[in-house]
From TrEMBL:
Protein name, per record: CMS1 protein
Annotated organism of origin: Polioptila caerulea
Upper classification of the organism: Eukaryota, Metazoa, Chordata, Craniata, Vertebrata
Membrane-spanning ranges: none
Record Pfam families: CMS1 (PF14617)
Gene3D superfamilies hit by this protein: P-loop containing nucleotide triphosphate hydrolases (3.40.50.300)
Domain of life according to the entry: Eukaryota
Gene Ontology CC terms, in alphabetical order: 90S preribosome; nucleus
Length: 201
């Protein structure tokens, strides 16, 4: 009698071949590319792309920021503290004259709560006697942040775009006395995405 064999080994081979032929991920491509510091044109292009479809030509022109609005970008040679010292040499004076509650002099925007905490720790050499407020959602309720901003005086706010937007919309955070908005542009997360590569941002 003839023996009958199922062709299972061949199927297994096909599966392993498919596994080897997986598609390239964007993170693989980014991993091989050298980090490139952000420049003002990057932000301008991003604003135009994001608002281009929904806005008129006049409204898009209003979104154009002049070069005088931008400070020199971090060219990746600075630590966070040394960069802040370079762009804001008169920080001690600004800190002293700031008396407005519900407001900060410097607003730092990061892609995540963990990155915000990392930056707060790394800016100790720069901040001096100033008070820093955490403006992110992780373990901190929005009501708590609203109460803190109303009662206390803070000089630096470090947080995520989503929470900062929510606080501004509820009039809990006023931007009238904000002199600096720092975007944590160059940093990449585990998936090698920058803050601006995250669709929600």
């Amino acid at each position: 009698p003839m023996e009958c064999f199922l062709s299972q080994p061949e199927e297994k081979q096909e599966c392993t071949m498919k596994a080897k032929r997986r598609k390239k991920k964007i993170s693989d491509v980014l991993q091989k590319s050298a980090p490139k510091p952000g420049v003002p044109a990057d932000l301008q292009n991003l604003l135009t792309q994001h608002f281009g479809e929904n806005r008129s030509v006049i409204e898009i022109e209003e979104l154009q920021l002049s070069d005088s609005c931008f400070l020199p970008a971090n060219d990746l040679t600075h630590s966070f503290s040394s960069y802040l010292r370079e762009i804001c040499p008169k920080w001690a004076k600004l800190r002293r004259i700031h008396k407005e509650k519900k407001s900060v002099v410097m607003l730092v925007l990061c892609s995540s709560a963990l990155r915000s905490l990392e930056l707060i720790k790394s800016m100790t050499a720069f901040k001096g006697d100033c008070r820093v407020i955490k403006l992110f959602a992780k373990h901190i309720k929005i009501k708590e942040q609203m109460n803190m901003l109303e009662k206390g005086l803070f000089h630096v706010g470090v947080g995520t775009p989503g929470r900062v937007k929510a606080l501004v919309e509820q009039d809990a955070l006023c931007l009238n006395s904000t002199k600096y908005v720092i975007l944590d542009w160059n940093w990449r997360d585990q998936k090698l995405r920058r803050m601006m590569d995250i669709p929600e941002v």
